[in-house]
Amino acid sequence: MSSEIISRSCFKIKQQDHITNEELTLLFNDIVQELSKLKSETSKDSFIRAISEIISLLENEDTEKVCKSCMFNHEVFVLIRDALIILFNKWRTNETLNEQEIVLLQKTSEIFWNMIQKITDTNVVVFKTLLLNESFIESIKLCVDDITANGKQSDDHILSVLDTMIWVLGKLMNDRKEVQDDPTLLTLLDSIVKCICSARYLDTFKQLCPEDSEVTVTTQFLLVTCPHYVIYYYDGERMEEIVSLMRQTKFDHYLEIFGQFMQSIEKWNSSLIKAMSYATGILQYISAGEVQRQKYLDLHLKLMDYIIVILKSPNINELLKGYVTTALSRLIYTAIVYLFGLSIDPTFLTIIKENELAQTFLTLTEANDDMIQVNTYRLLAMILDENEIKTLANPAKITRVFRDYIEMFIDNMLRKMVLQNTLLSLKSRYFKMISVEKSVNTLLLSIQHCF
């Protein structure tokens, strides 16, 4: 009987070209009442089948018709989330998922991804209630733990669902920084950090081939999604603890990885560049702090040599002349930011200067990418003397690049360290060069608005 009521309610929704919020709420109420009965049964098979029918409705009907943001607080979405918990736990305990269950996981994760794109100040509480649920996060966390500890070989379909849900949670954390230290989310962060510090991560990376044209689901999850999620956690209360833990393994990991792949850098394709871009992203993420830079001085010196190889690569520089992909941009600007962070230390600054990289960096300022340009100019400000800076062409362009970059962070004081380091570059270097430019007045006004 419950399934029949759910089917009738879904049919009514499908038949109406336009449905009011009140009508949709009433029909969803009927669905929830019956779903709750099915969920209370010992066997969850009927509950999962009913959820599958609802997911098909949400997926196939006009999104604005049945998946309105104003409806996200309805209990029906909580029950859909609970179906995910059941299936994640079923997979983790090595029970076989049938085709309907796999499809349900895939479609539900896609719906949640589409929903999180609509997060606003008005509905953020709804998303916190829906997603920051202890049982839900725990089910994802335990799956990640199994992948890390046991080398669990999952069906690609299941792993892609986990991948999507971690992106959903990452977007919530990135868009709403107040949730980054939510205790429930921190348990997931711990598991993801352990994952990318594991032998599984290293082995997966070392198995990549420059000739591979596609990123596998496993590669995407371990080498892209997990690092991306960790990088979302910046300025959190536990950041130093997380970074300290990662330093214990990641410097050695990247020495091994870079050592293997630098010989084939001229063959790197988009897939390998994407994986490498998150490697340099994590490297830059864990390298802040004067004391820590000195503690790992020998490792940084070796890593710095590899980073310079990347920045000097004819293959990479040729790619920068055309359309700059997001992965290529991330690879270059995180590599440059890593060097910039080291350059603040006199020991590393001297070594960077000895490598005579000015021409390499000047070439990078011509890349069709603002993030690469501004970070390259920041680094040039550290390694060039005043007379060399005065010889740089196009001060108006430099003014524009820095102005746009500063304005980007005016309202994002969580990135205050980035802004402070940028102003450090400007303070005694570029101001002397561009002071004759009228456009510098705009730049100065932008800086004043930061405080």
Biggest β-sheet strands, sense, barrel: none
The share of residues in helices is: over 70%
Shape annotation: elongated
Strand content range: under 5%
Short overview:
It contains 25 helices and no strands. By secondary structure, the chain is mainly alpha-helical. The chain has four domains: 1-71, no CATH class; 83-232, no CATH class; 256-361, no CATH class; 384-451, no CATH class.
List keywords for this structure.
disordered C terminus; 25 helices; 451 residues; 4 domains; mainly alpha; 0% strand
Description:
With 451 residues, this protein is mainly alpha-helical. The chain folds into 4 domains: 1-71, no CATH class; 83-232, no CATH class; 256-361, no CATH class; 384-451, no CATH class. It is built from 25 helices and no strands. It has helices at 2-15, 21-39, 45-60, 63-66, 75-92, 99-116, 124-131, 134-150, 156-175, 183-196, 199-206, 217-232, 239-261, 270-285, 290-295, 297-312, 314-319, 326-343, 346-354, 358-364, 370-383, 386-390, 395-409, 416-434, 440-448. Helix 3 packs across helix 6 (99-116), helix 10 (183-196) packs parallel to helix 13 and helix 23 (395-409) packs antiparallel against helix 24. It is elongated and about 80 Å long.
